[in-house]
Amino acid sequence: MKQLFVTNTKRFLLAIALSVTAVFGVATPSAQVEAQSPAGVLPMPEITIYHLEGRRSERLVWLMEELGLPYTLNFTRGDLAASMAAIRAINPAMPVAPTVTYGDQVLVESGAIIEMILARHGGGRLVPPLASPDFATHLLWIHYSEGSLASRAIADYRVWQIQPPQQRSPLVDSEGVVQFAENFLADNPWFGGAEFSAADIMMLFPINFAMNLNIVNKAQFPHINAWISKIEARPAYQAMLAKARPDGMVGSLPALPANASRAVTP
Questions:
Q1: How many CB atoms lie within 10 A of CB 1?
Q2: Can you say whether the dihedral through the CA atoms of 16, 19, 20, 26 is positive or negative?
Q3: Number of domains the chain contains
Q4: Does 117 lie in the same domain as 141?
């Protein structure tokens, strides 16, 4: 009797599932389900990273090197205009680096692409455990990298090129957002907390932008400088440089005067 009840229940649930599929046309391809590994890693389509040397697209190359995943890198060495033409050809509506083809999809936004690749193909790597306190701060720094740090540093850089400030803003400015990161690294080895994570990949670009262009005074941030040294020693980071920036920085922006990052009184 119990076996009959279980069998009838399974048939009932199957009938509901088939009805939902018939009405809404939604079904999970059985081949895809079977292809998933026990760790929940989905089969990966072909990935092409359309790249500009020294730009945010480096994050995707670095990520794939850290994970050991296959990808195609598309750029013209030493020629930003030609590399941008390739991006416009594949993504005319939003020609930005990175532009990534993921199977039949064309994707932008490096942070979103990183999170998607980790969720589908990372197998738990470069992300703190879900129940760990580090998981929350890992996500914080992934989004802080662009939402707070890069946006403020780029805004200050553009304004200061037009009119150097007489004093720093009494509100949060580029020095304040970098100092927040410095304070975190005073108590944590990585932006992922105890371990290196994708948050560190996201944070390097705006940190380098702020420091190398004299938007902030690099000497003020010893913990960040120590973190950069650890980053630059990583084999995957070195592999990224060899593939994505073989001739060093191409088309660098002009740095601000060396004293631009210092507070000045009228």
A1: 5
A2: positive
A3: 3
A4: no
**pLDDT per position as a tens digit, 156-167:** 999 888 877 777
| Rounded Cα gap, residues 46 and 43, in angstroms | 10
Task: For residue 9, give its domain range.
Answer: 2-35
The letter for the amino acid at 133 is P
Shared domain for 107 and 195, answered yes or no, is no
> Which whole-number Å values give the CA distances from 106 to 55, 58, 93, 101, in the listed order?
18, 17, 11, 5
Residue of 152, 154, 158 whose CA lies nearest to 173: 152
d(CA 239, CA 235): 6
DSSP string over 232-253: HT-HHHHHHHHHH-TTS-SSPP
Given a cut of 50, the residues of the chain with pLDDT beneath it are 1-39, 264-266
Residues in a beta bridge with 30: none
Q: What is the pTM of this model?
A: 0.82
